[in-house]
Amino acid sequence: MVFAISSEIIKRRNILSGAVGNTLEWYDFAVYGAMAPIIGKLFFPNDDPFTSLLAAFAVLAIGYIARPLGGIILGHMADKIGRKPALICSVVMMGVGTTAIAFLPTHEEIGAMAAILLILLRILQGLSVGGEYPSSIVFLAEHSPNDKRGFHTSWPMFGSVIGFLLGSAICSLFSNLLSATQFQAWGWRIPFLLGAIIALCATLFRRHMTEPNSFDNAPPLNTLPFIAAIRDHWREIMQIICLSLVNAVGFYLLWVYAISYLTEQMHVSTSDALDINTLSLIILLPVITLSAILSDKIGRKPLLYFVALGSLLFSWPLWWLMHSQSFGMILAGQAGFAVLFGVGYSGLSAVMVEILPTKVRCSASGMGYNLCMGFFGGTTPLVAAYLLERTSDDFSPIYYLMATAALSLIVTFFIAETAGKPLPD
């Protein structure tokens, strides 16, 4: 009985350790996305508010472009030294970056140096994020039984949404508690400062992680892990990129860019936009968990088909609902997207691990996932804002999402079903 209880405690501790770093990661990006209009004015002042907003989103994109390099560095560490040191390093880097932004002087105080410091901190965070999500799902997959791997690997995404929900809710709270003048002058710093608490908790949890047995027992490589990944598993890397596309673009379009879209284009109040964001994220949470359990029973491919086909068929009408000033209609549209992408995230997480062998698992999944997130996911707010400005078509961002869904659908057709099978050695 003591052994059984101890094993259960270890299992839960590992799940919590794997998820909590993603909570910090997405907390930060939720806060940055919500604060983008304010950050744009404070760090990139311009007579044209759109130009300032575009600059703030460009910094978000720069951080994401650093992700592939972070995936290589931390993925190499995870495959060569162990999952635990890589995950601890990742969460410390993110915590330092998030906390430092809270104390940054603005353009009015130190001029252009303010923007440079902000960019450097976002690059540091981008490097951190590059190793966080792939390494955490690999860590959990290697600790899970074959018939529950989908459920276990869903926890990092669940933690991500908790972080995003927490960031959105805290921004909403302080935007309601403070006057608009106070919030723009100094209140925007408080959510970044609170990220230090999450970073500390994540570091403490990860000190007690245990390495998976599969890592110690796997045969050694005759070269560096990221070189072996590119040389021998480039097809799997390309599959991960294409399968991740619709989820990456969808998330950043609907839960980062949409806040600015609703406030700037639809003239919805900041507090209402943040409330809608928060409520739709609450809907997303049970969808992720239930879909992950379902993926262990019926397979990963049906879920991947659902999000790709659903995005092709329903993105336009759901965006039409959001193209409104009605709180209820906007929430209905974003809730629909929450169902689509909640299913998609659950199908993808396990697949990224199940198609790769142990000694390149973090490197290859990190490269594929981060190349997609860096060049497509993180740049989505920038692309969406640019498309809207150039075309004057409020639906132009959704056509971009539909194009990525078409590509993800094609690749889903060609991959093998991996649910319930042992992980490759």
What would your notes on this structure say?
The protein is globular. Helices cover 83% and strands 0% of the residues. The chain has 425 residues and is an all-alpha fold. The N terminus is likely disordered. It starts with a helix and ends in an 11-residue tail after the last helix. It contains 19 helices and no strands.
- The percent range for strand residues is under 5%
Summarize the helix and strand pattern as letters.
HHHHHHHHHHHHHHHHHHH
The count of DSSP E runs of length 2 or more, i.e. the number of strands, is 0
**Average pLDDT over all residues:** 85
Q: Which residues form runs of ≥5 with pLDDT under 50?
A: 1-5
Structural class: mainly alpha
What portion of residues is helical? over 70%
Number of helices in the DSSP assignment: 19
**Spatial separation of the terminal alpha carbons:** 32 Å
Give the overall form: globular
How much is the radius of gyration in Å? 20 Å
Largest sheet: none
Task: Throw out a few tags for this protein.
425 residues; mainly alpha; 83% helix; globular
Précis, in short:
With 425 residues, the protein is mainly α. It has helices at residues 2-43, 49-65, 67-80, 83-101, 107-110, 113-143, 149-153, 155-177, 180-187, 189-206, 213-217, 225-232, 234-265, 270-298, 301-322, 327-354, 361-377, 380-391, 396-414.
